[in-house]
Each structure stands twice: as C-alpha cells, then as structure tokens.
Design brief:
alpha/beta, 237 residues
Length: 237
C-alpha cells in the first residue's frame, strides 16, 4: 500500500470543548503520515513553514464545523495569510497542483436538511462551492465532501462506522473504489494483528487469512463477469 501524506488543516475556535473534534483527532492519531494542524492554536502564522507543510502533503483536508454556511473565521484568516496568489497560481507556478483536496464538515443539523425541500434548501456541495472553486483554481484533485452530522446523537455502532470511514477518508488511496477499500482494510488489519500478543495474533491471523481468501474469490468473480460481459459485447457486433 502506497503511503499518503495527509495534512488536516483544522479550524475550531473552541476545540477543547468539542467532542466531535476530539473523536476525530483520536481517530487520526494511529494513521500513518497524517499531520493534525489546528490553525487557532498557532501563536503566529509562519507563512514559509505553512508552505512547507502544504508542499510536503499529498492530500490536504480542511476540517471545520459549519458556521453560518462557511468555516470559522480562523480558517478564513489562515487561507488569506497562507494562500497568496504567487503560491497558488502566480506566474504559472501551481504549488498545489495534483494534490488531493478534501473537506470534512461537521454540523449540528441532520443531513436531510441539506437538500432540495429540506430546511436549508441546498446541498453542502453548493454551500462549499467557494472552497471547491479554490481547489479547482489551484489545479487540485477534488474529493467528495465528508460530512459528520449530529455526532452526539449517534449510537456507538454508528460512531464506530464513522471512525473507520473517517480514517479511510484521510488515509485511503483515492478514489474510493472496491479495490482501494480492500487494500486499505488488509493493510490496517495487518498492522492491528502485528500489535497483538502471540496467542491473540494466531487467532487474528486466521481472520486475516479468511479476509484475503475472500478478496481472491471476489477478484475471480469479477474476472468471470468481465469475460461474460466481453462475450456479450462480441455477440452484439
């Protein structure tokens, strides 16, 4: 599995009081090559240091709670200070070109409100247009928005699913294809098994081997379906 260097630019003015951000930060900690960068914690924005962080990253994620249909003022200030024209696209120098760009947006409202006919009457994709326009101007690869809605109402199983989905969003190869999911889960399961005691490791290795066998069976099924589809296409000629 190819390692992805991810920079999560987090903006939250009261992050120490946010259960959602604490949960996401704990989820990000065990991930390889992930940098958690809280902009409100910076005493001073060192533009050169910020540029270095951005250049080193393969994937850049803006993460924030939805404040009046936008991000908190801290992220706006960081963007205005760091994302100068000469750095983003001036003189045809695209320092962020081909880097992946993601948005993690947390909201206290349910997702059903963000659709035609809902309370807000528009989708989060529409609301987040300025950030996606910036990424397009910088010639970045734009990922789908990752939304965390009403975290405190989620059940434990829902939160566990959220944890895995978030880890995949920040660390899994893009796009979110079946093969990329399989590679990610196998890699993470292998890491987990390696940290177990000898006895637990033997049992866990059985699970890992079963997982690999199921992947092989699925790959064989996909190959068979492709052959059938090709035969159907040939018969139509």
């Amino acid at each position: 599995m190819i390692s992805i260097k991810t920079l999560i630019v987090v903006s939250h003015p009261e992050i120490n009081n946010s259960q959602t951000e604490e949960f996401l930060q704990q989820a990000a900690k065990p991930m390889e090559d992930v940098t958690w960068h809280h902009v409100e914690s910076l005493e001073k924005i060192d533009v050169d240091a910020e540029h270095k962080l951005l250049k080193q990253a393969d994937r850049i994620i803006f993460q924030f709670p939805l404040y009046w249909y936008s991000a908190p003022a801290g992220l706006k200030h960081w963007i205005d200070t760091v994302m100068g024209r000469n750095f983003v696209y001036g003189d045809e120098q695209y320092n962020l070109e081909d880097k992946e760009f993601g948005l993690v947006v947390t909201t206290g409202m349910p997702l059903k409100d963000f659709q035609v006919g809902g309370t807000e009457g528009m989708s989060l994709d529409q609301i987040m247009t300025p950030y996606r326009a910036f990424a397009k101007r910088a010639k970045m690869i734009i990922m789908p928005i990752f939304t965390v809605a009403q975290f405190w109402y989620q059940t434990e199983p829902q939160q566990m699913k959220l944890l895995i989905d978030y880890q995949r969003y920040i660390n899994q190869k893009y796009p979110d294809s079946l093969n990329n999911r399989q590679d990610w889960f196998e890699h993470e399961l292998t890491k987990f098994v390696s940290r177990l005691s000898d006895e637990d490791e033997r049992n866990a290795n059985l699970v890992l081997e079963t997982f690999r066998e199921q992947i092989e069976d699925l790959d064989q099924l996909n190959d068979t379906l492709k052959m059938i589809k090709k035969g159907e296409d040939d018969n139509l000629e």
